[in-house]
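Q: I'm building a small set of examples for a reading group on sequence design. Run inverse folding on the following structure and report the sequence directly after it, with nothing in between.
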């Protein structure tokens, strides 16, 4: 069963979602709240799989509320306003349901949640040897899962060329033409990467050592891309390569 809560200032909307959850038979609604602040204690104490979250509420809007939560559960925005969809996407919402919500559309959203939860479990198993330190010399996993847009994406370690850090997200560059975007930080991604294969060479770059084509002064060449070597990383990086 998917353990979930509902946060919506409209009791009627809560009733509809409760009814849908009951009809589907795969969700356990353990609580519902018309005031989002009342949900904070529960979210901090219990492991919740899924939150149905309204956006326009008098106390705080759902977007600001989810930004304030640490260790975010999966969440689905439920709102009468379609203009917030882009912001929901940026926050890695599983889905964005516009009221009135058709039951068929609700089922589609829950199927996405189930798929993500399966990926989460695979990711935990695949990275069970990962150390919380920077880099994982004992890791035997050859893949990782990252959340990107509305899904968790499996990435083979060997396919990663380099990772670029931007303001609020990472771009993981692989053999595919389009990079994978994720909201992970460098600290978080490095706990998933084997340290013997990956190394941070700049405040904004981690590289796969096996993909390096050449080193030209203060630049690393991977394919035809030139990646800068930061001054604070230069000595350890070149020493690692015996240079």
């Amino acid at each position: 069963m998917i353990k979930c809560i509902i946060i919506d200032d409209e009791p009627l909307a809560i009733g509809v979602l409760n009814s849908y959850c009951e009809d589907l038979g795969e969700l356990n609604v353990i609580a519902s709240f018309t005031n989002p602040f009342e949900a904070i204690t529960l979210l901090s104490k219990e492991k919740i799989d899924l939150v149905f979250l309204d956006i326009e509420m008098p106390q705080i809007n759902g977007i600001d509320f989810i930004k304030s939560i640490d260790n975010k559960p999966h969440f689905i925005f439920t709102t009468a306003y379609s203009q917030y969809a882009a912001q929901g996407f940026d926050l890695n919402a599983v889905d964005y349901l516009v009221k009135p919500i058709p039951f068929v559309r609700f089922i589609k959203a829950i199927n996405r949640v189930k798929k993500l939860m399966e990926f989460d479990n695979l990711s935990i198993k695949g990275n069970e040897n990962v150390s919380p330190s920077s880099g994982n010399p004992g890791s035997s996993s050859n893949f990782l899962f990252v959340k990107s847009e509305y899904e968790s994406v499996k990435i083979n370690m060997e396919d990663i060329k380099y990772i670029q850090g931007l303001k609020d997200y990472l771009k993981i560059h692989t053999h595919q033409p389009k990079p994978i975007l994720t909201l992970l930080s460098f600290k978080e991604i490095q706990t998933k990467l084997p340290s013997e294969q990956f190394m941070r060479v700049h405040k904004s770059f981690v590289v796969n050592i096996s993909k390096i084509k050449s080193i030209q002064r203060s630049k690393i060449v991977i394919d035809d891309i030139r990646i800068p070597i930061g001054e604070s990383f230069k000595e350890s990086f070149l020493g690692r390569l015996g240079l």
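The radius of gyration is 21 Å.
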